[in-house]
Design brief:
Layout (H helix, E strand, L loop, with lengths): L2 H23 L10 E6 L2 E6 L32 E3 L1 H12 L5 E5 L3 H4 L8 E2 L8 H11 L3 E2 L4 E2 L5 E5 L7 H12 L6 E4 L2 H7 L13
Parallel strand pairs: 3-9, 4-5, 4-8, 8-9
Antiparallel strand pairs: 1-2, 6-7
């Protein structure tokens, strides 16, 4: 075999192995320029990033496909509640970690689901609590900055809230959002993370469990 052909084959093999090695060690990014963000969760700093193990697979809790009913992309029409994706969710987490006190991200799932893991930087208010009118008013007043005059609700200083649950088949956050809309909560100050935990975990993003110690 001519030396030129042998040299070409060796160069080709070297380049192939180099690309393969780089691919195996290359960081798994959130987007083309963002690798991670730090947020506060239960008073501790948690770094959100994608799992760097390229063989990592989604949690077993979200592997079953039979659950729930598929939620529409915009399930709150005619109310103009914005449906957001994972990158928008991360941007809201960045804003909160940067000190924006007018935002709140709520895991609206029940305890049994939350114990399996939640998104760092969010708080849990189960959707069932909104079904009780007295409790719903208490949450809006104490946590969402809604002024209850006794005769009416004043939403002038109400926080923008982002709600999520298990995924596009889960009705927990949609139920809570519909109740808030019935109270008159401004649709422009509600965001719906439709993909929820299933999308979050499918991207290998960091999950924490209640009271879990973090480094």
């Amino acid at each position: 075999m001519p030396k030129t052909i042998i040299c070409s084959l060796l160069i080709s093999l070297t380049l192939t192995f180099t690309v393969f090695a780089e691919e195996k060690t290359k960081k798994v990014m959130i987007n083309h320029e963002l690798y991670s963000i730090d947020v506060k969760h239960n008073g501790q700093t948690v770094t959100i990033k994608r799992n760097q193990n390229r063989d990592n697979i989604i949690s077993k809790y979200f592997q079953k496909t039979h659950r729930g009913k598929i939620q529409p992309m915009h399930p709150f029409k005619p109310h103009a509640v914005e449906t957001i994706g994972s990158l928008e969710m991360i941007n809201y987490l960045k804003k909160i970690s940067g000190g924006n006190e007018n935002l709140m991200i709520i895991d609206s799932r029940t305890d049994a689901w939350v114990k399996r893991g939640t998104i760092p930087g969010t708080i849990n208010i189960p959707f069932t609590e909104f079904k009780n009118e007295e409790r719903a008013l208490e949450i809006m007043e104490d946590k969402f900055n809604v002024l209850n005059t006794g005769n009416a609700l004043n939403f002038n200083n109400a926080k923008t809230i982002i709600m999520y649950c298990n995924g596009i088949w889960c009705g927990q956050s949609p139920t809570a959002i519909r109740i808030l809309l019935q109270f008159g909560y401004p649709a422009a100050r509600i965001k719906y993370y439709r993909g929820g935990m299933q999308n979050w975990e499918s991207l290998g993003l960091t999950v924490v469990k209640p009271m879990q110690k973090t480094k």
